[in-house]
Amino acid sequence: MELIKDYRLNDTLRLSLGALAKETFSLGLEEWYQAGFWNESYIPYSLVEDGTVLANVSANTVSMIFDGKPMTAVLIGTVMTDKAHRGKGYSARLMNAVLEEYRKKVDMIYLFANTSVLSFYPRFGFVPREEWQCFIQLTDIAPKPEPFYILDIHRPDDLALVQRLITSGKPADKRLRVTSNSSLILYYCINGLNGALRYYPNSDTLVFIEDGLLLDYYSGSGLSLQGAAALLNEGQGELPLGFTPSDQTLPLRWQPYDDHLFVLGGEALTGRFMFHSLSRA
Fold it and tell me: Is Protease set as a keyword in this record (predicted)?
């Protein structure tokens, strides 16, 4: 058995990783790769035997901005072990390898833990951090509806529009913003969010909204968050956000959001914040 990392171009290992991810978490890694969206920022660290991935911990290298200050970070995800090999310390070995690689290179390492393994990550120095979700109160924001249509990421023209706006459009203003995130956003687009992409041609704005939750938006016209709230105001009283707005003069309601965030470093993250929904893995 050997530890192999960063092998997305190796068909045998990538397909084995994808099969394990599909079985463990129902993740569509191979679909992501075949669509051309898996780039060098997602780096699997795997224990491999006879061409088969037995266990994995992936490092997502990201850049972010918090309160206007740039930071570098690694988001850990896809932590999994084949059922036949659990309890052998494979995840711990891989976690140590990732931490040894990145601990001194980035400002922060973080992850979102499954409820079944909350006691695992503190062994490596991770500490739990509380997140807060915002809700914009719409009572004093006049509705300004615009016509829109639902995009289909499988249509070339729609895909080109999505790629244009997430790379060059103005994103929702966020207190905490992951800036190198297009690969992960496109993963979500082809794995569950395809029906949640709205395009508003009048304001050249792409909106990610699912079950009334504003996950994010990207605007070619520089639409403000208040403008987006007016766009989405259908008399529902409040608009839940999948991110923390930088403009906190807006009428906001806050409530704790528990997605089991664990952080190593990251002392600069202060006050109430939330990693935006499309930056999670």
Answer: no
Beta bridge partners of 108: 73, 265
- Whether the Cβ atoms of residue 243 and residue 185 lie closer than 8 Å to each other: no
Same domain, 153 and 39: no
> Are the CB atoms for 177 and 137 separated by under 8 Å?
no
> 78 and 65 in contact (C-beta within 8 Å)?
no
Distances (CA, A) of 90 to 26, 50, 54, 276: 21, 16, 8, 30
Render pLDDT for 124-151 as a digit per residue (tens, 0 to 9): 999 999 999 999 999 989 999 999 999 9
Residue 72 in tokens: 């570098």
Amino acid at 184: L
pTM of the model: 0.93
Looking at the fold, whether 242 and 145 belong to one and the same domain comes out as yes
Report the length, in residues, of the chain. Answer: 281
Rounded to 5 degrees, φ, ψ at 199 are: -120, 125
* Residue 263 domain boundaries: 2-130+258-271
- Angstrom distance (rounded) from CA 200 to CA 219: 9
* Gap between the Cα atoms of 232 and 214, Å rounded: 9
Within a domain: 279? no
